[in-house]
Amino acid sequence: MEADNSKIKQAEQQHLDFVRGKLKIAEQKTATTIQTAKQSQQELEDHFYDDVRLKTSTYEGQMETGVSVRQQQQMLEQRQNRWQTATRDLETLQKLDQNAYFARIDLQEQGEATPEKIYIGLASFVNPDDADEYLIYDWRAPISSVYYDSGIGAMTYDAPSGPQRVNVTLKRELQIKNGQLTQVFDTDEAVGDRVLLENLSHQSDTKMKSIVTTIQKEQNAIIRDTSADLLFVQGVAGSGKTAAVLQRVAYLLYRYRGKLTPGQVILFSPNQLFNDYINQVLPELGEQNMVQMTYYQFMRRRVPRLTVETLQQRFDESLMDEPHNVTTLKNSLELFQAEGRYADSLNQTGAIFRNIRFQGKVLISKEQIAEIYRSFNANYNLRNRLEATRTELLKILKRHMGAEMKKRWVEEAVEGLSSEQIEMLHAKAGRQRTDDDQDARFLARQVVKAAFAKVHQQIKRNRFFNINQQFVNLLRALPNWVNLSEWGVSAADWQASVTATVNRFQAGKISMADVSMYLYLFDLVTGKRPDLKMRYLFVDEVQDYTPFQLAYLQWNYPRAKFTVLGDLNQAIFTRDSSQTLMDDLKQLFDPDKIRVIKLLKSYRSTAQITNFTKQLLPDGEAIEAYARQGEQPRLAVATDQQQAVQTLIQTIKTNQADHETTAVIGKTLAECRTVAQALQQQRITATLIQTENQRLAKGVVIVPAYLAKGLEFDAVVMWNGSQQNYPTVHDDKLVYTICTRAMHRLTIISIGTPSPLFNAVNPADYQLIKE
Ligand SMILES: Nc1ncnc2c1ncn2[C@@H]1O[C@H](COP(=O)(O)OP(=O)(O)OP(=O)(O)O)[C@@H](O)[C@H]1O
């Protein structure tokens, strides 16, 4: 219903002017607060020591000075905080001044005589002249939920005091640009299609945007859930899983303000490129970003001495071999549990150690360490035993260091010290120089300490525990802890995989399947304490995770509530095992605390593209297209590479003319390199994305499929969707993932016969072009 009624518009503009007037007052007040806070902070800094009582001659005096300094620092911190908070407030007010709100709802609470007008915007704003009057409600406020969840009429929402029944009498969408009202539109739907359609028809960007003005009802449920320990969002490609989850982070930070910080929220994302893509959404919503990491980074930083298999290698390998029973077993929850039992058994059998060396010679032998370890009662748990062993080793080290002080090399080293070095050593220790004898002993101790620093650190970091050997031992022993035949794995297959792991170790490498097992073992034996700080954990593209990895994440973050997002149809790394992921996850959480939300509507692509892509899947019927119109996808069949390149260039040029940015998506990096070269020869500018650490560039990009995960582009060209490249039904998920990256335009170029997967699509739903 177009509220073009000029009276309505006029009244709304008047209200907006009134609100902006109040915003201006608040802005001025805040600016003054900033100014005074800044000034008094400066004064405090300038006179920091004037107010500190400096008494250093006696012990009491030093204590008093310390307390006094601390007090001054605290005051300084308080002023800094006040200043920072006010600066943030001012930013918010300025944003609101430009765009105060986007919606209005009128609702009547039970028992109230008149309806209340609620304006919803990016942040709350209270009338500076009347503290009881909310001029703007934050989109995350409980009452704002009404806007996203209902049309006109009676409904119930979750108020802080419990469920609240209200009658909605008006829903109005308001568009404001630079402080001026541009459009007013009354609607009776939850969130009107009109604004959504308009938002969706925008051009893609190298950065994702927030969706607060058009959150859909099912997405709102994801955003506001606070009860589930595991929230599993299963959504088709482009259904707004990532979008919803980022708004969810903003919601949680609002809802638990003061109790939850961005550092207690962690998002595991598919690759670094994706991190870059989404990192503007939270700042746009006035919040700081959460911790963002890929699982690979999470692993790699803990094994600096080994090279972990990269995304590309992992993808290439999964292309080469069929879903392998050994890998499936290694990735399973059963194996995670078996590993726990194996680690427990080490209490009886003992762990494997390695020699501690100093200057190339064995200082404490592994046998000696094993003896110490055994000497502690087996009733100790693993952590305590290792800790006790470590303490004992540090004592032994101290004795060795004492003995070493009298050695000739130490004497020589002391003699070789320059006078600056000697001064520095004394100063560092806060020591006055005394007579020669004591000084010499002091210096000898420093020299020995420096020489043993590395050994000391090694002991502290449990390096005497031989994790590599222990890991191989675990692999060898595993047939005693799991029934290989239940997994269709023969003893010989298993043996071969152990040998492969050992060979990789020798080359300083470790596979992605092995590295989680490896770290879990290390943690169990050394008794690493889990991270209790993290309260919310998000996993995007969960279908590419293995049950083992998820169990390990849960073990690492036992207090975190999990939100996992996935689309089983986009499982490009794990393929079959992703189907059982839900069953496995159910075992990790209390079944009463699991909530599954399904999103079936795809917002990213035009109806034509969604109707095409859904037919690529055996069970794609359930996917709903969003009613945004565009042109039909094109399947262009070229006879050879040269002709294919010509078609590609033509497509890029047409897209450019229509202001659509193009992503050329290939299967592998090697293939993408070939395309990049071909384009370069023809003087077409394009950016080849080779690693996940690159930035998304504007203009034409060429990107391998596994790096395009989670991203979207105006126009996509799938490079070489031929039978040769995608010969089997197993390739459906990969082809689906590639094609669903397109928002407005999709072109598939095939060199020779196209993949049989396209036979499943109704010929009326695409244009076939034979060159
Ligand atoms: N409620 C909404 N309002 C406006 N835009 C939306 C909404 N929901 C989703 N979108 C847009 O649809 C596109 C796809 O969303 P998103 O990337 O979150 O989907 P996804 O489910 O994570 O997709 P995929 O699994 O394919 O990576 C984005 O451009 C997003 O901004």
From TrEMBL:
ATP binds at G235, V236, A237, G238, S239, G240, K241, T242. Residues 214-606 form the UvrD-like helicase ATP-binding domain. This is AAA family ATPase. Pfam families: UvrD-helicase, UvrD_C_2. PROSITE patterns: UVRD_HELICASE_ATP_BIND (PS51198). Keywords: ATP-binding, Helicase, Hydrolase, Nucleotide-binding. Gene3D superfamilies: 1.10.10.160, P-loop containing nucleotide triphosphate hydrolases. It comes from the Bacteria.
